[in-house]
């Protein structure tokens, strides 16, 4: 991993002249009060390594007649320098060959020099960056889209099943009601058939009465009309035969009652209401059962998709143990970003940034005064454990500060000038052949 071994900054924003050697690993804190030049140091490093898109809008220190000067020596031997009226970039590799911004871009992570851009993004944006880095973002998005679609379908089906069950429970049930609705026309036809048969019976009775009356009349006429006795006897015999037939037809006759049918016709609406209620209840219970089966089937599909997501992230090359993505949100040890401690947030951010450009062994952090001493200690220990370098600023002049900036200088080294005198040979990576430590010039 490539780190920053040494740096010199002069006349950039609020910096007058600063020279420092950051710790090779762990946390290097640049302390000082507000408006002294701390953030200007980080901005200068970002400009030097990230290119002109990180150039401050007012790069040259106000009141300075000398242009900005940036000189960094990296752990791979590269020397990065910006100087002169146009602050032109010069990159020299250990073999003396010149390079440019493209060489720096090959290993300098954009978020490493602009970590607040990552820290201030939303949890979903952080998760998207992580998924893009580990190469499973598209697959996970497809699975989550499918899961949400099936979840919505299952939710709708569950609601319908609940509604059907509730409707079935609220319906009255009539055990004595027929299975199918009764047709009024059929009952009327049955009634008409019975009335027709009864009418026929009545006609037969009337026929019997008629012949009995005729015979009686004829018998009386025998006594009165002897002259017609023979004829009357013949008629009488004939009538006797007809009478016998009529008696035979009428002897077993029994009228049927239409009372039940008349009652059913009068109650048909109530009966059919009960039948329909029973059918609705049966249908609702059947529908509810079918929707429950479909609901369970979709639940199984959702479980399968969630397992695929879990397997996908389990096998992915994540930058930090305990780091994962759930429902599009970044999580670390089960906690979402806003529930993580300050140290954990810094650890997660640094790990993801490192994954973007594995060869970039440093990050820049501004405004660490928001972190308490314990958070700084935990984060610093983790950096050392991982062999990473962090250069940070903090509004403080306490012991946690590696250097303190006062009015654009390292405290105790006011008035130092860093740019080579015009006409002299640039000493390059040897830093003038002098070995020095932070705060020693």
TrEMBL record:
InterPro entries: P-loop_NTPase, Rad50/SbcC_AAA. Keywords: Coiled coil. SUPFAM superfamilies: P-loop containing nucleoside triphosphate hydrolases. Gene3D superfamilies: P-loop containing nucleotide triphosphate hydrolases. One of its GO terms (molecular function) is ATP hydrolysis activity. The keyword Acyltransferase does not apply. Residues 6-248 form the Rad50/SbcC-type AAA domain. One of its GO terms (biological process) is double-strand break repair. Residues 208-308 form a coiled coil. This is AAA domain-containing protein. It comes from Paenibacillus cellulosilyticus.
């Amino acid at each position: 991993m490539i780190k920053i071994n040494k740096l010199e900054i002069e006349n950039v924003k609020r910096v007058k002249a600063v020279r420092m050697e950051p710790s090779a690993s762990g946390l290097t804190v640049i302390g000082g009060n507000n408006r002294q030049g701390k953030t200007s140091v980080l901005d200068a490093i970002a400009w030097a390594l990230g290119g002109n898109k990180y150039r401050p809008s007012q790069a040259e220190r106000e009141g300075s007649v000398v242009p900005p000067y940036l000189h960094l020596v990296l752990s791979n031997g590269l020397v990065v320098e910006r100087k002169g009226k146009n602050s032109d970039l010069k990159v020299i590799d250990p073999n003396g060959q010149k390079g440019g911004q493209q060489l720096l871009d090959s290993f300098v992570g954009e978020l490493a020099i602009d970590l607040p851009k990552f820290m201030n993004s939303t949890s979903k944006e952080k998760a998207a960056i992580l998924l893009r880095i580990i190469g499973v973002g598209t697959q996970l998005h497809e699975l989550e889209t499918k899961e949400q679609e099936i979840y919505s379908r299952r939710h709708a089906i569950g609601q319908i099943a609940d509604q059907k069950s509730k409707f079935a429970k609220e319906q009255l049930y009539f055990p004595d009601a027929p299975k199918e609705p009764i047709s009024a026309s059929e009952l009327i036809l049955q009634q008409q058939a019975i009335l027709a048969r009864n009418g026929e019976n009545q006609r037969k009775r009337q026929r019997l009465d008629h012949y009995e009356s005729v015979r009686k009349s004829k018998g009386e006429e025998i006594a009165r009309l002897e002259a017609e006795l023979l004829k009357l006897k013949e008629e009488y015999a004939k009538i006797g035969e007809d009478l016998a037939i009529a008696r035979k037809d009428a002897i077993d006759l029994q009228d049927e009652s239409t009372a039940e049918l008349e009652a059913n016709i009068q109650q048909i609406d109530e009966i059919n209401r009960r039948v329909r209620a029973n059918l609705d209840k049966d249908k609702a219970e059947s529908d509810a059962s079918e929707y429950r089966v479909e609901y369970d089937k979709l639940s199984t599909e959702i479980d399968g998709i969630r397992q695929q997501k879990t397997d996908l992230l389990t096998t992915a090359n994540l930058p930090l143990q305990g780091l994962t993505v759930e429902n599009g949100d970044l999580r670390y040890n089960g906690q979402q970003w806003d529930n993580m401690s300050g140290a954990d947030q810094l650890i997660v951010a640094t790990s993801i940034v490192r994954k973007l450009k594995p060869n970039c062994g440093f990050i820049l952090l501004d405004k660490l005064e928001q972190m308490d001493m314990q958070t700084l200690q935990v984060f610093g220990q983790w950096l050392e454990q991982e062999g990473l370098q962090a250069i940070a600023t903090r509004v403080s002049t306490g012991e946690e500060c590696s250097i303190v900036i006062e009015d654009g200088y390292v405290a105790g080294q006011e008035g130092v000038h860093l740019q080579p005198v015009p006409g002299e040979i640039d000493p390059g990576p040897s830093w003038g052949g002098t070995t020095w430590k932070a705060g020693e010039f």
